[in-house]
Amino acid sequence: MIFKTKNIISLLLLAVGVFAANAQDGTTAYQFLNVPVSSHVYALGGHNITIIDDDINLVEQNPALLGKEFDHQVGLNYMRYIGGTNFMGARYGQGVGAHGAAGAAIQYFGYGKMNSTDASGAILGEFSASDLAFTLTYSHDISDRLRGGINLKYVHSSYETYSAGAIAVDLGVNYYNPDKDLSLSLVLKNLGGQVKKFNDTRDKLPWDIQLGFSKGLGSTPFRLSVTAYNLTKWKLPYYEPADKNNTSSDLVERDKFASNLFRHLVFGIEYLPSSNIYIAAGYNYKTRTDMSTYKRNFLSGFSIGGGMKVKAFGFGVAFAQPHTGATTFMVNLTTSIGELMR
Q1: CATH class of 2-340
Q2: Tens digits of per-residue pLDDT, 166-177?
Q3: Domain segments of the chain: what residues?
Q4: Handedness of CA 211, 89, 313, 308 (dihedral sign)
Q5: For residues 23 and 196, what is the distance between their CA atoms, to the nearest angstrom?
Q6: Which of 55, 160, 219, 273 ranks highest by number of CB atoms within 10 Å?
Q7: pTM of the prediction?
Q8: How far apart are CA 16 and CA 209, in angstroms?
């Protein structure tokens, strides 16, 4: 069984090489695929592929985090996002044999009502815009500490009378050593392409390579996480006002080594007083610098949240404020059907 799994992983990695070899620079669509659905992840800065917890919502970040320990677990998520948009979804997992697990999920991204206008700006009416993502997940234990997984996603976008569809694949590997509370992961995200275009232009998926590290800090009740993302491109310059006290001043480009390095990294810290409670905080330097030309405040780039489990139910919340006009809030709920029926 393990031999067959290794062969499958080898073929998947070969497919990744083909995708990477054909990747080109340019803007991408389907950026909503990078919005986390886990409040635990959102509290840790929005990107985390290594956290080990009893929360099936984490699987969206890394399919290798799914395992038979999530047998018959259901996860629900809701997020009040920027501009009054609402995201929500559900995920389910179950064990498959002695070494595997499978799951399914649906995620809805609703952007509300917008005005429809003609060329002169006259309002003709309203229209809605939304995205849907359907995901199937499979994971397999390669050894007692190493696991591989795959997410297969179909994405459907509907904007006014226009629609488009795409197929994306995530490939993940996780190494977890419970004795040292050490978790390491590699994930290749959003490999694939459109199967139906909005028009004559083929939009690209926001494919990415991510590396992650999580480690308990000795005998203390703290755990540190560092996640590297956007690894398909080193340079991530940003612009900010030449006079930081005057947002109307001329913009200057920031493209130094340290700036590029930290715009690839997300830092998270957790306080874990027990196995059923966590309090988490994160810092995303890219989010903070992306807001440099807007009305950011001290909280820009920071996030915070917490969660707890009581019997068969788990509950998590997270909060962030990228800039003064955008307060975001996420809530998660998980439950094990098996525990409920006992």
Answers
A1: mainly beta
A2: 999 999 999 999
A3: 2-340
A4: positive
A5: 19
A6: 55
A7: 0.85
A8: 10
